[in-house]
Amino acid sequence: MSLPARPRRLAPLLALGVAATLLPQLTPQQAAASPAPGTTAQQLAPYAQQRLAWGRCPVEAPATMQCATLKVPLDYRRPDGRHIDIAISRLRTSVPGKRRGILTFNPGGPGGPGLDFPVMAAGELPREVTEQYDLIGFDPRGIGESTPVTCGLRGSDLLFPRPTRTRAEFDANAAWARKVAERCRATAGAVLPHITTRNTARDMDVMRAALGERKLNYYGLSYGTALGAAYAQLFPHRADRFVMDSAIDPKRMWRGMYRVLAPTAEDAFWRWAGWTAERASEYRLGSTPEEVTRTFWRLVEGADREAVELDGATYDGTGVRNLLRAKFVRVRASAELVVRLREAAAGRPAAPPAASTSPGSTSPGPAVARTGVPDDNLAMSRWAVVCGDGSDWPRDPEAYWRDVTRDAVRYPLYGDFVSGISPCAFWPKAAEPAVAIDNRVPAVIVQNEWDPQTPLSGGQSMHRSLKGSRMVTVAGGEGHGVRFYTDTQNACADRQADAYLATGRLPATDVTCAREERAN
Question: How many CB atoms lie within 10 A of CB 98?
């Protein structure tokens, strides 16, 4: 789901600088827990007490939504040093007498902006939820309107994952990865080590305090689940009602989250092949799963010889694999797409595409770049997080080559894409380690069984790490995300999340919801 292109306006700045005189005593709402070793609450007081100047938003939004600029430390270990801006938004939907606080959102990424997300949320959440909360959005540190990071890169330098079919291709990809990391180190090396999930969670607590709230309620999607889990770990007594949609595996951050896409893609591919074979008379791709897969691989091999043109785009064999990988969880839509590709490859007119929501996005945020935001901002802020948070990125380039040669054989659909080298092999080390997740903070985790971006195993791992959580699984659910930005919304799962936000009562046990049948 995308929102309209958004004209840039200047957001009002804070009236209070970070060196403002401290008030005699912090109120309970404004007290921010000490979020870094050696840092005291008094040192953070100017941030927790800052007065937010609300005004028009720098994104396209209704007049009822207001925006402000929050000041936070670049380095929480040195709060008296450099500060950066965090753009935040507020949509007052609560009803007097029923208001219980704020509901903060992160729509995914990493690298995804969220300033305009309250508008979408207000249209999706039921009244029993919105009348209790004011809805809060923000662009995480380094992203969009929040002191955006840039390395001055553009074009093909922003593309990832990259296929690695030969040693020559690997060497070219390694040169690209080194170039990106070195350029970023040269242009933003003082900032990048601080663009991490740990620090974004700390920013959220400063935001909570500046808004005068005792606790934070939260709805995180995709990467937003990792951010919410980090907040719950760092500030367990400030975390109130948390909902996690399509969870990141906290044990696989971050290279593991890419590599797991290969085996899960194979599972989805063979499930699709079986479904399609049962409908051989309709699609004519084969009458057994093996025949269907052979038809697909012949299409890939043919595209490597002569690229296929479809819907204004051109695909070689790797392009066909990359196009279909995330879509194979949608069995009907994938069968229709493979038929159209086969017709186009044969030089015959392909049927027009069926309207559908792509399951491949990791974030519901708008695809349209904001005016004034650097072209490479989303990609570079993503690398900052996945490289800074991840301790599983080898520094030896040859380790990637060994993984690629194995995974390309084990997982032919996508193994060579996601096991390849990335800028993280050469990236500056983060200022602090990532947050290890292991707590009993209550939460509701909702997850589709067939999610191509955050697989079910990741949601189950998050559930084990958040020991106070309940897991809501949509059996047979297809696509990335259960709510907000897919066409796979599930009334049963939504009821569980909404009831928790409205009442604070967790489901008594984990819940399995049946998939709602749709023509997809």
Answer: 11
